[in-house]
Amino acid sequence: MKISARNVIKGKVKKIVRGAVNAEVVIEVASDVEIVSVITLESVQSLELKEGKEVYAIIKASNVMVGVPHSAH
After folding, report:
1. Domain spanning 7-59, CATH architecture
2. Rounded distance between C-alpha atoms, residue 57 and residue 54, angstroms
3. Contact 27, 15 (CB under 8 A)
4. Which strands, in side-by-side order, build the sheet including 54-59?
5. Which residue, 40, 41, 50, 45, is CA-closest to 15?
6. Is the pTM of this model over 0.90?
7. Who's near 17: CB < 8 A, 6+ residues apart?
8. N or C: which end of the chain has fewer CB within 10 A?
């Protein structure tokens, strides 16, 4: 697999939550660390995704927002 994205994180499918058109794919990348991706049901099928399968979360974004909690007053 060759891709241009720099952020490639290896993990395993923890859970797939199917909806009418899309599915949420929960990828466990470390103990208690998950990334959730929303993809089409067609993609779930064509990638043959199932719980326990090794996958890669590939993140390509032009912007990453950063937030901080409100200060306690």
Report:
1. Beta Barrel (2.40)
2. 10
3. no
4. 33-40, 22-30, 7-18, 54-59
5. 50
6. no
7. 23, 24, 26
8. C
pLDDT confidence bin for 64, thresholds 50/70/90: confident
User: Which pair of structure tokens corresponds to residue 28?
Assistant: 């466990």
Picking from 10, 23, 18, 24, the residue whose alpha carbon sits closest to that of residue 54 is 10
47: left (phi over 0), alpha (psi -120 to 50) or beta: alpha
Helix (H) or strand (E) holding 25: strand 22-30
In the chain, where are the structural domains located? 7-59
Amino acid at 61: A
